[in-house]
Amino acid sequence: MSRLQARFAQLKADNKKALIPFVTAGDPNPDVTVGLMHDMVKAGASIVELGIPFSDPMAEGPVIQAACERALEHNVSLNDVLGMVAEFRQKDAETPIVLMGYANPIEVMGYQYFAKAASTAGVDGLIIVDLPPEEGEDLVDELRAHDIDMIFLLAPTSTDERIEKICKLASGFVYYVSLKGVTGAANLDVQSVADKVSQIRSHTDIPVGVGFGISDAEKAANVSTLADGVVVGSAIVKRIANNADDAEKISTEVCALLSSMRAAMDA
Fold first, then answer.
1. 60 among known catalytic residues
2. DSSP string, 83-149
3. Selected catalytic residue, list 49, 94, 107, 137
4. Is 248 a residue of the active site?
5. CA torsion angle for 120, 126, 129, 135 (degrees, to 10)?
6. 95 versus 131: which is more confidently predicted?
7. 217: how many CB neighbours lie within 10 A of its CB?
């Protein structure tokens, strides 16, 4: 059983839902990331999603685009991100880590090399925004050989046929993008999320995580009644950007947000 499977199983046994914060590795500088990851776990994070900085992050809104730019100013590479995961694992062997990024850096590294290096570092799952299932089987095979889950995205426009196809390849959890837009958009429609999550569940028993548009404790709590996990990204990255010169204040503000979400979800 992978760390992701074990975490979702334990949360289900405890009648809780996963809180999954996203941060871009190396934002605002590489020295902040690992400490912030540990602090987020203490604040109630169930799983940590770590973004791989990329120069053309097509799914991201301005907030996370800027985070990628800040990290790339420090030349943060995929190897650096894996190094951060390995450093995190020195103190935390239990919290699942999911990398989120784009196909180019992984293709440059090579699927086989990446899968082995990610496994050695302690990565548990991978989200590749621009790698559809039709082109992802080779990578999925390499990841499975190293017990890493491939997490695919589903959208409001995904048909039953598409959902079924993606769920057959996915493991760990499936990530439902809750709105037609980029990260940071604010037009979250809880009823439409409920309808789509129900549709997804008719095709799979894999946990369903929901992200995009979740910015406060109330939205996190509402979505947690529908899904197995709640992903929050831009709301965290905004707090990082607003306090880029003060690592302690970054941690304080990010953890306050996560603690409020955890409390609301558990209530």
1. yes
2. HHHHHHHTT-SSS-EEEEE-HHHHHHH-HHHHHHHHHHHT--EEEETT--GGGTHHHHHHHHHTT-E
3. 49
4. no
5. 80
6. 95
7. 18
C-beta separation of 65 from 27 below 8 A: no
CATH topology of domain 3-266: TIM Barrel (3.20.20)
HEC string of 139-175 equals HHHHHHHCCCEECCEECCCCCHHHHHHHHHHCCCCEE
Q: What pLDDT sits at residue 61? A: 81
Q: Is the pTM of this model over 0.90?
A: yes
| pLDDT tens digit sequence for 45-94 | 999 999 999 998 887 888 999 999 999 999 999 999 999 999 999 999 99
Checking 120-123 for CB contacts under 8 A at 24+ apart, the result is 120/86, 121/82, 121/83, 121/85, 121/86, 121/89, 122/85, 122/86, 122/88, 122/89, 122/93, 122/97, 123/82, 123/85, 123/97, 123/98, 123/99, 123/148
Structure confidence by residue, pLDDT tens digits, 130-175:
998 888 889 999 999 999 999 999 999 999 999 999 999 899 999 9
- Catalytic residue selected from 60, 94, 135, 248: 60
Tokens of 221: 């709590």
